[in-house]
Amino acid sequence: MARETNPNFMAGVPELMILRLLQNREMYGYEIVQAIRAETGDVVSIGEGVAYTVLHALEREGALKSRRRRVEGRSRIYYAVTPAGLKRYQNLAGTWATLARAIQSVIKHDLAKAFHNIILGGHHGEAV
Amino acid sequence: MAKPFENVREQLLQAGIAAGHVNRYVMELREHLADLTSRERTNGADAGQAAAKARTIMGSDAQLVQAMMDRSPPRSLAVKAPWAVFGILPVVAIFVLIFLIGMTMMRLTFPVRTQLPTEMTSGYQALLAAVSLFTTYLIGPLAAAACIAVAVRQRLNSAWVWVGLVLIALLCGLFGFYTPSVPKMPYHLVTLAYDNGHVSPAATFGLIGLRAGVLFVLAALAWRTLRNRQPSAA
Question: Does residue B233 carry a pLDDT above 70?
Answer without folding.
Answer: no
